């Protein structure tokens, strides 16, 4: 980063870099080789985030994983954070900040190369599936700055952003155990690997923390984008007696919500719940008779991306560093949602226990 650019960035008030909670709006789609250039959909509602703000000489882009930017989960959370940062700093979408959508893994490297050609200062890969691609383009472009979310790169020009997902999932397990009426709950993971294993491990530990006799049905979709598979797995779990399902599967989770809504609308007396992931997914649980999102674990991907960007602006790019976000930093958490007072009280007690070190949450199933 040039001294001229750095001086211009330092002139920005730090408050312009802070993110509000996820807005919950759907980001619009783009092709795999062009950044988004659509206007922000909040403009008509009176949002003037970028008004009277001097544009800064800095730009950020992200490459999604297979779930897409409108997955209502992980990628969307990252995009909402980047978009808000761009608006607050007077940047134009498509030049100051952008996303490149990947429909499958073959799009990863081409999307990075397109972002490179478009001249973005930092390019983030959103999700551990992009690690190999990030490392490849980082090796080929040693003077370019990159970021990887949910995995660790050993390249000096890559910052690694990780999350203690098992801690938030533990709270989800406590919430599920305090709420279930059947004594059976489900967990649907995306693609098997260390990251999603953290979710599974924390959730199972949280359930057992409350009542180790509760049965946890664990299944994997081996996808982050196939909502149909999510609906199919959820149908089996609900039919087998589970009344709560926690998904950590990106857009696959849309199918879980669909199945729960269909069942609740056809038989409202058979109460079913879904626990959302990565962002507050309460809106996904709306149905004719109410709302079936019990709660959601939060993963502040957008905040993390903005914080590392801020560090690059204020102190220099943190290349080669790994930054971990847990309950103690507010990087992960659980929303109150539709939890009962008793269940929420148990969650708050468990949260404090984890932060204080009185409760040690296992990180991986193979480390139990």
Automatic annotation (TrEMBL):
Question: What are the entry keywords?
Answer: Cell membrane, Lipoprotein, Membrane, Signal
Q: Write down the PROSITE patterns for this protein, in alphabetical order.
A: PROKAR_LIPOPROTEIN
Keyword Ribonucleoprotein appears in the UniProt entry: no
| Entry-linked Gene3D superfamilies | 3.40.50.2300
Q: Which part of the chain is the ABC transporter substrate-binding protein PnrA-like domain?
A: 59-363
What CDD domains does the record tag this protein with? PBP1_PrnA-like (cd06354)
InterPro entries linked to this entry: BMP_lipoprotein (IPR050957), PnrA-like (IPR003760)
| Compartment(s) | Cell membrane
Pfam families referenced in this protein's UniProt entry, alphabetically: Bmp
Principal place where this protein is found? membrane
- Extract the ranges annotated as region (Disordered): 23-54
Q: Which GO terms describe its cellular component?
A: plasma membrane
Protein name as annotated: BMP family ABC transporter substrate-binding protein
Annotated organism of origin: Alkalibacterium kapii
Tell me the lineage of the source organism. Answer: Bacteria, Bacillati, Bacillota, Bacilli, Lactobacillales
């Amino acid at each position: 980063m040039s001294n001229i650019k750095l001086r211009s960035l330092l002139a920005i008030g730090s408050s312009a870099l802070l993110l509000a909670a996820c807005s919950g709006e759907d980001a619009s789609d783009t092709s795999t080789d062009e950044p988004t250039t659509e206007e922000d959909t909040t403009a008509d509602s009176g949002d003037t985030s970028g008004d009277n703000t001097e544009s800064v000489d800095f730009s950020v882009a992200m490459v999604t994983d297979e779930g897409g930017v409108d997955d209502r989960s992980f990628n969307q959370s990252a995009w909402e954070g980047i978009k808000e940062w761009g608006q607050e700093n007077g940047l134009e979408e498509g030049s100051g900040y952008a996303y490149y959508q990947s429909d499958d893994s073959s799009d990863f490297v081409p999307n990075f190369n397109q972002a490179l050609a478009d001249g973005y200062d930092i390019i983030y890969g959103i999700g551990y599936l992009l690690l190999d691609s990030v490392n490849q383009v980082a090796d080929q472009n040693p003077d370019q700055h990159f970021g990887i979310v949910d995995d660790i790169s050993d390249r000096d020009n890559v910052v690694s952003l990780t999350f203690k997902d098992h801690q938030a999932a533990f709270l989800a397990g406590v919430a599920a155990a305090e709420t279930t009426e059947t004594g059976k709950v489900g967990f649907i993971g995306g693609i098997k690997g260390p990251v999603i294993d953290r979710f599974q491990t924390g959730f199972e530990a949280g359930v057992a923390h409350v009542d180790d006799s509760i049965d946890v049905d664990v299944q994997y979709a081996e996808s982050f984008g196939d909502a149909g598979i999510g609906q199919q797995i959820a149908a089996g779990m609900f039919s087998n007696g589970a009344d709560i399902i926690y998904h950590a599967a990106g857009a696959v989770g849309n199918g879980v919500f669909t199945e729960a809504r269909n069942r609740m609308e056809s038989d409202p007396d058979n109460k079913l719940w879904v626990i959302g992931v990565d962002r507050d997914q309460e809106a996904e649980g709306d149905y004719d008779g109410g709302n079936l999102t019990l709660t959601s674990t939060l993963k502040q991907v957008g905040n993390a991306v903005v914080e590392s960007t801020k560090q690059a602006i204020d102190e220099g790019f943190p290349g080669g560093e790994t930054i971990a976000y847990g309950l103690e930093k507010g990087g992960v958490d659980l929303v109150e949602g539709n939890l009962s007072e008793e269940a929420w009280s148990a969650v708050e007690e468990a949260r404090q226990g984890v932060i204080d070190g009185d409760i040690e949450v296992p990180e991986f199933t193979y480390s139990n």
